[in-house]
Each structure stands twice: as C-alpha cells, then as structure tokens.
Amino acid sequence: MYELKTLLPQFDIKLPTCMYELKNVSLSADPATSISSGGCSASEFSSSINSRNSVTCALDLDILGRQIQHLLKQDDTASIAMRQEKVLQQLEALKAQLGKIRADLGVCGKTVQHTTAYQNGGLKEVPLQDIVINGHPNFIPYALLALKNAWRDLYTVNVKTFTHSTMADIGPAAREFEAKLAKIPVNNALPNINVTLIWKNCEHTEMISSPTMYVPIYGEVNVIRYLGRVGPVEYRYEGSPLCNEIDLVLDICYQLLRCSTHKAQVAMVRLLDKRLQQQQYFGGSQMSVADIGVYSSLIRIPAITDKDLTPALLAWRKRAKLVTQI
Amino acid sequence: MVEDKENVANGEQVSKKGAKKLAKAAKKAEQKAETATAIAANNAAGDSAEDSALGRYGLSEMIQSKDKRSERNFVAVHELSSHLEKGLLWVRGRVHTSRSKGKQCFLILRQQSSTVQCILAVGDIISKQMVKFAGNIPKESIIDIQAKPVSVPNKIESCTEQTLELCVEQIFVISQAKAQLPLQIEDASRPENADDDGLNIRVNQDTRLDNRVLDLRTPANQAIFRLEAGVCRLFRDILTEQGFTEIHTPKIISAASEGGANVFTVSYFKDSAYLAQSPQLYKQMAIAADFDKVYTVGAVFRAEDSNTHRHLTEFVGLDLEMAFKYHYHEVLHTIGNTFTAIFKGLRDNYSREIESVGQQYKVDAFKFLEPPLILQFSEGVAMLREAGVETGDEEDLSTPNEKLLGRLVKAKYDTDFYILDKFPLAIRPFYTMPDPSNSTYSNSYDMFMRGEEILSGAQRIHDPEYLIERAKHHGIGLIPPKLRHTSSPSRYGLPPRTPAGGIGMERVVMLYLGLDNIRKTSMFPRDPKRLTP
Predict the structure, then answer these.
(1) Distances (CA, A) of B270 to B256, B266, B267, B273
(2) For A198, which of B383, B409, B413 is closest by C-beta distance?
(3) Confidence of residue A51 (pLDDT cuts 50, 70, 90)
(4) For the AIMP2 thioredoxin-like domain, which residue ranges apply (chain A) (predicted)?
C-alpha cells in the first residue's frame, strides 16, 4: 500500500476552551502490553491499533503484521472454534425445542412441506396453475373434449364453462359442447388440471395461466401443446424422437384453421395426408396430441367433407373417433 | 296607426290656442316628435307587417287545462329517428343551449337524457323576429316546438341524436326559466376527460348536491337514476319469479338489530327508539313463520361517522333470506344468479343509459360471467401470494389486498363480479357454521364487484346447543343480550338458513357503472355532513 503523509502536524491542535476535556481512553492502553498479553479480545485489539494510529497517525503495517502472526500462533483460535461449536449445538437444541412446540400446537404442516420441497433436488414444487381458456362460440375448442375423452383413464381435465358478458347467446353448438363436457365423469383420484372455459367475444382462442405473468397463449393448437406438456406422460412429446413431426402437424392445423378459402383448406388437408401416409396415427402407431389437433381442427371446418379427405385420412378419422369420441 | 297619432297631435294643438308663441314652439317640437314616432311606428308597423311568422312563436299562456290540443302529436326525442321524413311533429323539451347568429338560430333541445339539434333559419316560414326570439329564450326553459326531422350528412357530436336535426316551424315557451342559474347544465354534464384541452369548468360535488334539481337534469344523472330504478325492478322481478315474497319490515325498532352500537336514536313518545340498521331480525322471523323465501327493499340507517366515497348514513337495502334444504350453496347460487340476472337485464335493457353515463364518466363496461365465478378463499390467497403479497392462510383480506385480488381475478377471468367462498373460521363471528370437511374454514362467503365487497353472508348455526358450544369456544360465556334475539326464534324450530346480508342498492349501482362516489348514485344522499336537500 501507499503510505500517506500525515496531514495534521503532530500535537499542534489548539482546542477551543469552551469544551470539556475528556480523558483520552485509547492512549491509556499501552500498545506493547496489548500485544504481549496475547489473549486480547477483538475490541481490545482494535483499540490498540487505534492507539498506535493516534500516536503516529498512520497505519503501522509492521505492528499489524506482527499482531496477526501473534494471533495465528495463539491456540485461542481453537477456543473460538470450540465456542462456535457450542453455540451451534445450542441452536440445534433450540430448534428441536421449537419443533416440539410446533408439533404440540399442530402447526407443523407448513415447515414439513417446505423441507420436502427443498429436498427435492433443490427444486421448488409449484402447484399447477388453473388455466383459463377464452373461446368464441363460433370457434369451439373441440380439442378440450377430445383430450378429456382420450385421457379418461390417465388424467382429469376438469372443465368449468362460463359465458362472458360480451356474449349474449352462445348458440346451440356451444351448448351441446358444454353438455358433452359435463357428461364425462370426473375422477378425482387421477392427477388433474382445472380449466375454466369462458365463451367470450374474442378473436382467437386464448389461454391465460397466470394473471401476474400475463402472457396469453393464442390458438387452439398452442393450447394443445401446453396441455400436452402438463398432461399425462404418455402424451408428453417433447422428449420423443417424433417431437418435430408432431409440431409440424400441429402447425399445419394452425394454418388450416386460418385458411379462408376452401381451395387453401383442401391444400392443407393434402399436406396432412402427406404426413400421415400409411401410418396408424400422425407420427407413428400411437395416438398423440397431433391427432387431437387434427381431429378437432377438422370438426371446426365443416366445409371439409368426407369427399375432400383421402381414404387414409378417413380411416384415420375412424380410428381417432374411437379415442376422442366426438 | 299613423293617422291616429296625427289626430291626437291635432287635438293637443287645439287645446293650446291661447299661447300662440308657445304653441308655435310646441308645434315645432310636436312635429319633431311626431315624425320621430311616425318613423318608429312605421318601422314597427313595417316589421309586423313583414313578420310572416306571427303566431308561430311566443310565450304560451299559462296552461290551465283549457284545451286538450289532442291534435298535437308529441314524439319523444329518442324516438325521432323512426319519424324521419314523415312530416311535422311536436316535441316538448328544455332549451339546453341556444345561440342565434344572424339569420340562423341553433337550439339544442333536451328531453331527459336525449338531446337533439334544432335549427331555425329565416325563410318562407320563419321570420327574423322569430329567430331573434328563439335565440333569447333562457336556458332550461320548457318549450314546445313543431318541427320536421331531417337527416344530416355529418354526425352531430354534441347531441345524442347524431344523425338528424329538427327544422323548427313553430316554437312556444311553456315555462320560462330564470336567466341566471346556480349552475350550468353544460358544465355539470361536461365529460371528465383529463386530456381535454377545451373548457375545463367542473361543478363541485357539493354544489351539485345543493342544487340537485338542476344537477339531476344532466344526461348522466338521468341515466344513473333510471338505471337504479332498473336494479330495483330487476331485483324484484327476478326474485318474485323464483317464488320469493316481498315483505316490509318496520324501520322504527326497539333494540339495535345487528349488535353494533351505531344506531340512530329517535324519540318515541315518552321513550326512545332506534332506526333499523337492517331488516335482519324481521326477515328471520318471516322465515321462522314459514314464508320460506322472502326479500325486502327499504331504507337502512347506519349511524357511522365515516366520510368516505362508499358510505352513506341512509341507503336502500336489497335484502333476501331463504331457508335451504341441505347445503348453503343453494343460497349462494340463488344470490349469485340473481346478481348475474340483474347484470344481464341491465346489459340488455339499459344499454342506452349505460352509454350516456359513459359519455360523461369514462369507465369500462361492467363484465361478468354466467354462471358467476366462485373462488375458494384459499385459491384467492394463492393468487395473492403468486403476485408477491404476504398473507396468512387465516388472515382476513385487507382493503388493498381485496382490491388487488379484484384486479388479479379481472386479469385472469375477465370478470368484475365474483364470489369468494369458504372464509377462515377464525375471522368470522362465532355463530358462523364451520366447514364440515376442514374446520379451519367456514361456510361463509363474500361477493365482490370491481374489487369491492358488496355482500357478506354465512350459514348461521341454527342448532341452539351447538351455538352455545361455539360461543364458549370463542370465550363468550353467554350470548350477549343484544344478540340474544338471534337465537330466540330457534326455540320454535328454525329451518337452516343463510342470512344474505344487505346489498346496498346505491353501492351496487356505483360499482356497476364504475363511478367514484356513492353520492353520485343516491338521489338525495345522507351522510354525516349532509341532511339537505
């Protein structure tokens, strides 16, 4: 370190006479004795340094170094360590005592939850958010019903339906859809997700999970993707090798729903046929969220009749109907 | 007329024959004056001669029910659009504003909350004098006009009837207002836009209340109180349809009805009595008397010295009470559905009123779900925690938390009305029935509009033994004498019941319209500082 020059001339300060004079406490302690005495506490130690400084008005590195060396050599570090040990033990005892009191009072629930959450690889378990889906009665999200049926024995999609004040009448198709949703029995033993479906005068089907992190998910296929992620393991596709294929099919569905002309819709159907080829389901022999997406999209477009579908698609549709039951 | 004047002048001349000199001078002066009056008379005569519109305008004589004038076909301003191009019709209304400019006069006619622009232009039918007369009618005078509705190419932004105007052919003042008014309706009805660069004159709430008659004429106030009437009517209709019976309860009572100390005392002959804080006890007695489902609409008094935007000392309470079979949710759903039905009725039948309130006070339309959204208290707490608010499981919602929860629910479910169910038992009174599945919660609920509580209810313990047990648990040895009557009817066998608590009509209207002060939705509000008008 750089050494700094003393700014004030030594002992040349003229004190005003209107003040009481106090004894200089630090000067009374002799720096030499404090070093030799060894077992000094931290406060004494600092005061001894202060006293040195007050005399020289500069940090005497030599003395400081000597003191540190001296302290390190002393075996009282061991005594400090022992003291710490003892304090920790006392704390443990206190904790156990508190725990017992808590158990007696029957308020232990929360702490137990916390510890298990943290033991779980340091990951905090957050309960699954209830989700809200806003849909227009003209664009009924049939995928919800399809998923509910397909997951009947795996996972409970608990759908509650509401009508928003912006919709005066939801029409017969939506009412029928509501009735069908309500018909499926709810199995509370299975893992479940609560879905609130609100008929609303909105442009897109949108999904909201958390109001504080308000990032709506637009489009029915994206809602399917979300549900596919939180749903049963059998339908989680992100880890599967068919991941890209399924995403592609869902993207085609998205485009299909946006097509305004019949010609464009048929072109999309042809694309779907290309993806299906001779497979049992989209992306293999297992039913996946891609099938749900395609199935529900085709229901939403009544303009596409059996005539527009290829034999392979028609056969697929029959197979899918057994699962989705719409 | 001119000849008449000359005759009079000649007569005077004859009478002053004696003093010839004087007479000469006088004659000169006389002649001067004569010519002057002649000119004036000439002018007047000329004017009246030219006034082709004489009889088409003027002050109407006092209406003493002399004629029925049934030939006059009066049309309401808001129905004018259906009478377009159908010829002349009559309209009665108030002069909202009128300004004449040369040969034209624009007059805005107001009828309740509808306004329409009227135009008088000098022409075949209308004379200059008539235009002048129309321009000088004081504001707020009542007038009858005969006019022809004509559609206009450009929208008239300042009126509610934006697509048409009236071409006036006759105009009569029925009742003239004073030229100076304590407040201008224009100022009182100016939209509350912060970014408006124009005139920014506002009428203070107290000035409005002091001159309530004038203030109530603004389109927004007209709409508010029509809508308020709608709330009452819908409440009655909906409940009557569901088999409820309307009852009327006394307002002068002998003991405080809700345990609280905040009652008004009135002298009652040699004794004193209290003004009813709620019809609670009488509703209960009606239930115990097997009326099964009852409701009442009536004044409720609270002697609370709270000067806030949401408290009044007298308000109209909409109360209902019903016995239920097995589950208090039967009641919860009835109340919730009643609210939704009221909101739906307002949305469908009162859109015009809502719109005209919206023109003055910028607020979002009230949104709701059908069936009403019911959240559990624990779900609400979870939502608050997620938003970063530290709140205990058994802690009551503070007012800011209540508002925040309202915003969160709005963001997620897009509804301004929701029900919070299953409140913690600890924060509810001892007579609340605990939840059968989890004893930390209770069978109690609150209902919220735009994040403010409007109703609080709970299943009350109807079993006297259990009530005493719960009271002991709460450290209440004996039921306080003031509350004793709540348990007394149970001695005669009481059906399970859920007092719904009172719904303040003014508060419901205030929150439905999104207004900031309850005094705006009470026609003649009573608060700790106001007993008049």
Answers:
(1) 18, 11, 7, 10
(2) B413
(3) very low
(4) 128-217
List the domains of chain A with CATH numbers: 25-73 (no CATH), 84-119 (no CATH), 127-236 (1.20.1050.130), 237-326 (1.20.1050.10)
Active site residue B208: no
The amino acid present at B402, given as its one-letter code, is E
Q: Please state, as a whole number, how many other Cβ atoms lie within 10 Å of the Cβ of residue B140.
A: 19
The pLDDT of residue A53 is: 46
Spell out the domains of chain B, with CATH numbers in brackets: 58-62+69-175 (2.40.50.140), 220-520 (3.30.930.10)
- Record the tokens describing residue B407, joined without a space: 């915003």
**Which residues lie below 8 Å from residue A152, measured CB to CB, with a gap of 6+?**
A184, A187
Best of A165, A178, A206 to mutate (most B CBs within 10 Å, chain B): A165
Please tell me the distance from the alpha carbon of residue B250 to that of residue B267, in angstroms, as a whole number: 16
Distance of CA A54 to the CA centre of its chain: 56
Structural contact between residues B27 and B13, judged by C-beta atoms closer than 8 angstroms: yes
User: Taking CB atoms and an 8 Å limit, are B414 and A210 in contact across chains?
Assistant: no
**pLDDT tens digits, one per residue of B432-483:** 889 999 889 999 999 999 999 998 888 888 777 888 888 788 766 555 554 5
Residue A261 tokens, joined: 């002309």
Q: Where are the alpha helices (DSSP H) in B120-241?
A: 128-135, 185-188, 205-210, 212-215, 219-241
Mutate to test the interface with A, among B369, B393, B409, B410 (most CBs of A within 10 A): B369
Decide if pLDDT at A120 tops 50. Answer: no
Tell the residue number behind the tokens 């209440």, with chain if given.
B476
Q: Which residues in A lie closer than 8 A to residue B408 (C-beta atoms)?
A: 211-212
B12 assigned to active site = no
Contact B369 A163 (CB under 8 A): yes
Give the residue from chain B lying closest to A199, CA to CA. B369
| Confidence at residue B318, expressed as pLDDT on a 0 to 100 scale | 92
| Known catalytic membership, residue B304 | yes
Residue ranges, chain B, pLDDT below 70: 1-19, 36-50, 194-199, 256-261, 475-494, 497-501
3-class secondary-structure state, position B256: coil
**Average pLDDT taken over every residue of chain B:** 84
**Gap between the Cα atoms of B435 and B465, Å rounded:** 18
- Please report where in the chains the tokens 């007569």 appear, as a residue: B11
Phi, psi of A229 (to 5 degrees): -75, -40
Residues of B in contact with A168 (CB under 8 A): 347-348
ipTM higher than threshold 0.95: no
A-B CB pairs within 8 A amount to 55
Chain B contacts of A212, Cβ < 8 Å?
386-388, 408, 411
Average pLDDT for chain A:
78
Q: CA angle B199-B202-B207, nearest 5°? A: 150
For the question of residue B311 being annotated catalytic, the response is: yes
Give A32→chain B minimum CA distance, Å: 56
pLDDT at residue A63 is higher than 90: no
Is A71 exposed, middle or buried (CB count within 10 Å of its CB: 0-12, 13-18, 19+)?
Answer: middle
| Residue-wise pLDDT tens digits, B244-284 | 999 999 999 887 555 555 889 899 999 889 898 888 888 88
Phi, psi of A307 (to 5 degrees): -60, -35
| Distance separating alpha carbons of residues B123 and A231, to the nearest angstrom | 79
Mean pLDDT of A165-189: 87
CA distances from residue A300 to A28, A254, A289, A295, B138 in whole angstroms, order as listed? 94, 12, 17, 9, 63
Question: Active-site residue among B81, B453, B490, B526?
Answer: B453
Residues of A with CB under 8 A from a CB of B: 127, 130, 132, 134, 162-166, 168, 196, 198, 200, 208, 210-212, 214
Contact B388, B404 (CB under 8 A): no
Residue B83 catalytic?
Answer: no
